[in-house]
Amino acid sequence: MTATPAWPPQSAPRLHVGTLLGTGVSVPIDGNPAHYLISVMRVKPDDIVLLFDGRSGEWAAKARDIRKRDLILEVISQTRPPEHVPDFWLCCAPIKKGRIDLIAEKACELGVAKLQPVLTRRAVVDRLNLDRLHAHLVEAAEQCGRTALPDLGDMVKLDALLRDWPGDRWLFFADETGGDPLADTLRARPGPAAFLIGPEGGFDPVEREAIRAHPRSVPVSLGPRILRAETAAIAATTAWMTINGDWR
Amino acid sequence: MTATPAWPPQSAPRLHVGTLLGTGVSVPIDGNPAHYLISVMRVKPDDIVLLFDGRSGEWAAKARDIRKRDLILEVISQTRPPEHVPDFWLCCAPIKKGRIDLIAEKACELGVAKLQPVLTRRAVVDRLNLDRLHAHLVEAAEQCGRTALPDLGDMVKLDALLRDWPGDRWLFFADETGGDPLADTLRARPGPAAFLIGPEGGFDPVEREAIRAHPRSVPVSLGPRILRAETAAIAATTAWMTINGDWR
Question: Exposure pattern of A94-119 as b/e (b: 16+ CB <10 Å)?
């Protein structure tokens, strides 16, 4: 007896595309993604490539018309329905290039619905390359099997974030001056949530007061050691996913 | 009224040393640490530097005899007692350079007692530079305020790890083929623990059988998405610290 080949093939490359996908749709691919498929993955005619558009789940497509720098992927069937993403936002201050990239990559893998950059007073970086962050989200989604990309918000100032905060969403924040025990606090507050993480230097006292005064905010402690900003972001996301997300 | 200056000064540099510390001990510093103190931090005579030796807590020392490439730090008083580190080991397969370094850095920040490299069949890397990993642990400990360095084990093969496993220690392992829900499983099993994380390609079926057959092993799921090896290591450590460690 021969084993039935796995469907979709485990080795199939996985690619995010902008086109809305559906059976029979032809997706022209050029640029870097084409280079990746043709020269790195050495895709041949009729090979399967998995596609997702961030909205309609995941689809198997067949390669055809492979040329030097472009090819066509023709969608043949759906392989996974649209993903249910836990309703969790990661709100974090911009930090240095490599470390904010790490936050984007890990936030996507860990399952956040939205990454929201927040400008705070002690931020050492006051602008972000959203295109680069988006590229990290896409790459992580391709790698970790997500079919939905996390939303990436434009950077907002902390006071605007607090002013416009949705009334039905918890705003957990990592307070270096101390907070409630993490696990019990999260467990007691299911439902839509966000974690707010400050920059390397933390929030300034006025900011901390404003956050603490917000009706939906809940200060929590991320333990007795001093975490780097990106460690705090990754750890906070993990803790929420473990206790209130879809890791249960 | 003038505010009393904070003690120890918040801006004091923090350094790990090999010398066993105590009041009155003089610690000669040269090489990179001296360069860091003299040229980067611009330490002047009588400035305070915080020292820890990984065993005796943290100490304030005064700089003296500052020369071009060396100086003396004279210990004046203890600032913190030896740290109580939660009894948690992170056992992980070697992975690519930058990513195993990230595991070492984050494991130290998150509070592990021991980092134990484990060689598995699908490991893409079969040797580790333990000196480099040790340097990452030291740097992270200096940064995050730990007074105890995590132990760093020599690399062991998976079968030896399982054979010599201590009978009183849980061996949680991240099983990509599915496992028990993370939070409840951890909560039901307090006490000494370890998390075993495979390489990028996961454990092979024979290894997985051997791990599952071990009397102390407990398979758990790290959620529905595919985590990179270093993300799994960081997430597993965070989850344990949140539920059973000292983040409570």
Answer: bbeeebbbbbbbbbbbbbbbbbbbbb
Name the residue facing A110 among B183, B235, B243 (closest C-beta): B235
Strands B217-221, A114-119: pairing kind: unpaired
> What would the mean pLDDT of B104-130 be, rounded to a whole number?
94
Nearest CA in chain B to A239: B239
Specify the CATH superfamily of domain A88-244: SPOUT methyltransferase, trefoil knot domain (3.40.1280.10)
In chain A, what are the domain boundaries?
Answer: 14-80, 88-244
Mean pLDDT of A151-168: 97
Which fold, B88-243? Alpha/beta knot (3.40.1280)
**Pair B174, B180: CB distance under 8 Å:** no
Query: What is the model's pTM?
Result: 0.94
Per-residue pLDDT of B173-201, as tens digits, reads 988 888 888 999 999 999 999 999 999 88
What tokens appear for B18 in the block? 């090999």
Residue with the two structure tokens 């923090």: B14
Interface probe, candidates B195, B247, B248, chain A, greatest A C-beta count within 10 A: B247
| Distance separating alpha carbons of residues A165 and A217, to the nearest angstrom | 10
Instruction: In whole angstroms, give the CA distance from residue B37 to residue B40.
Output: 6
Within 10 Å of residue A179's Cβ, how many Cβ atoms? 17
pLDDT value for B127? 86
Inter-residue contact B140 to B16 (CB < 8 Å): no
Band of residue A2 on the pLDDT scale cut at 50, 70, 90: low
Task: Choose, out of B80, B137, B226, B238, the residue to mutate when testing the contact with A (most A CBs < 10 Å).
Answer: B238
pLDDT band for A126, please (50, 70, 90 cuts). Answer: confident
Mean pLDDT of chain A: 94
Q: Give the Cα separation of A185 and A170 in Å (integer).
A: 11
H or E, element range at A50? strand A48-52
CA dist., res. A111 & res. A128, Å (int) = 22
CATH domain A14-80 topology = Ribosomal Protein L25; Chain P (2.40.240)
Contact between chains at B222 and A247 (C-beta distance less than 8 A): yes
pLDDT at B42 over 90: yes
A14-80 and A88-244: identical CATH topology: no
Do A144 and B227 contact (CB within 8 A), yes or no?
yes
